[in-house]
Structure formats: structure tokens, C-alpha cells
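are you around this afternoon, could really use another pair of eyes. what follows is a protein written twice so to speak, once as letters and once as C-alpha cells for the fold. i want to understand how the C-alpha cells follow from the sequence so walk me through it. anything you notice is useful, everything is just below.
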Amino acid sequence: MGRYPEADLSKLRLISVRDRPTKVSVDDFARPSADGREAEALLARMPRQLGAEKLRETVAAIVQARVSGRPVVVLAGAHVVKVGVSPYLVAWMERGIVTHLALHGAGAIHDVEIALFGGTSEDVEEHLQQGTFGLVRETGEFFFAAAAEARERREGLGEALGRKLEEARAPHADVSLLAAAWRAKIPATVHVALGTDTVHALPMADGAAAGETTLRDFRILAHTLGEARGATVLNLGSAVVLPEVFLKALTAAVNLGASLEGLTTVSLDQIRHYRPRVNVLERPTRAPGARGLELVGQHEIVLPLLGEAVLAAWSRIGTPIANL
């Protein structure tokens, strides 16, 4: 026994998802077009300056990576799900544009709640005062059942969550990032920092299962980054966890022989953050031909434009990349 007392979380008063109001509904989610041509036309009319040029470069880098048979890795923060732009990443995965999806714990939780319940995100301040913030029984039961199965089956946490959403016939699995990755048969990894997510306070929380399976996901990401040469990696809205995970996984990949030549990294967020700048844009891009591209803007505005423009470029893949 340790020296210090622990809170007895078995005594927590949990709530049902049916009794929790949410701020985000699946009905509010974006609806990607079939071919993205309207956004492409808008992008063509934008000035050849600064952020508009970076946006064009990002579109070309994503498509060029896939045309060249190189990975496109998306690191997505929770805000991407909460503002309803997941359908663009789903559309990319369905078309073979994204080859690896990485989420942190909060992103996975919001994605699971959208898939299962059609709503997520709550009034944190109000529920904190009531002592019920995040204490939703159904979310924890699903999350840790997946983690336990993943541990038993030697799966990663992301793989197990996507598989279980599909097996459960989640009502909104069509807009779930994890379920889409499972359907597309691409790696989806979930990178948990214990103590940061709502489900960690629940009495059914299983640190052993979450820890083992998220560590397996780290190794899966490091394996993907073994093909970093000529790849494109996008960090969408994670300010701390995913940039740190990316840097450590990339270090392991380089140690095992990966080249960073020609790597393109992209960071998109509402404001400029320290870790995405140094860990994503600067430190990994010192090799010949490597570069970092920064896009600053609200996800619910910039990501639909980027998403549609990539779909348009992908739909006419016969066009030389330089002309996209």
C-alpha cells in the first residue's frame, strides 16, 4: 500500500447520457460535396499571397504525397470533432487520401459520443459546479470495454474503438473518424495521457488496459512514420498532446532508419501555439526538401475549404500536381 489516501471513485454519482444536455449535435455537422469544385473555384480566385498560397501548397502537398505513394497522416484534436468538420476527414479516408489517423483521448471520446449518441460536449462550468462534468456512465462503459478487448486481442486502442462502433451499428458511424478508419482499413491510433480525459474519473476506468493499448498505438504511429520521406503530416487543432507524441514517435522512426527528406508538415489552428510550431513545423523539417506550412484560422471555416479543395484536386488526379 502507498502512503497516501486515494479518492474512492466507486462512490461517484454518475449520470446517463440521456440526462446530459450537449452543445454539439450531429445535425450541425458539415456536409462535404461530391467533388469540391465550388471550393476549388473560390481558392483559384484568392490572392497569390501569404495564407492563401499556404493553403494551395497544403492541397498540393496532400495530393502529391498520395500520388507518389507516400503517407498522409492526420493528427486531429478534439475541436475538429466538436465544430462538426469530421465529415471532411471521413471523405478523405473513404477516398484513400488519409493513410493514418491519430487522435488524443478527448478527440476519441467526442468521436465515440457523436457516433453512439448523436451529441457531445457539455457546459463544463455548470456541470463542474454540480459535480457531474464528464461523469457519463455509457461513455465510460463503451470506452473501457473497447480498451479491455483491445488488450485481450492485442489491438491498438483506436482500432478497437472503431471496430466496436461498427459492430455496435452505432447510429452515426457514418460521420465517425474512428469507424471510418476501421472501414477504410487504415490505422487509427488514440494517444491517451492518463488523467486528462473525463473517462479517467469513472469507476470503471482501467489504467492497465488504456495504458497498454495506447502504448501499442504509439508503436503503430512510429511504424507509419518510418515512411516519413515524402510524406505529409497534418496537425489539426492539437496544441500539446499530439505534437509531443508526434515528435517522440518520429524520433523512434528516425532511429530505426527513417529519412525525413521531402517531409511536409502542416499545422492548422485558431491561434499559433508553441508546440505545434517547434515540434511539427520546425524541428522535423531540417532535412533536404522538407518544409513546414502553417495555416491560422477557425477550423469550422478553414477545414471545409481545405477539405473541399483536396477532394476537387483528388477527383482530377490526371492533372499535373504543379497545376492544382
Remarks:
- Confidence is low (pLDDT under 50) at residues 320-324.
- Residues 207-225 form the longest helix (19 residues).
